[in-house]
Amino acid sequence: MFYGDESGVSLLPCVPYAWQFSDEKVGMPSTSGSVVNCFALLSRSNACWFRTTRQGVTSALVSQWLDSFAQGL
Predict the structure, then answer these.
(1) pLDDT tens by residue, 3-21
(2) What is the value of pTM for the model shown?
(3) CA–CA distance from 28 to each of 4, 22, 38, 48, 68 (Å)?
(4) Contact indicator for 2, 11 with CB cutoff of 8 Å
């Protein structure tokens, strides 16, 4: 059995909340750039299969990746 998940990473931080003292300023530097998306399948025995893309992850792309994964079984 494999568990699947998708995640995206970018250089633009998203911090919905933060804890700080009332007189303390909190900030995170950011820069513009492209997003890298990763789709991974992980087994309970820590076998990992993944694909990355700079495109948006669509159901058609996930279906293509799952077909590729199944060919390797």
Answers:
(1) 999 999 888 877 777 778 8
(2) 0.68
(3) 30, 17, 24, 32, 39
(4) no
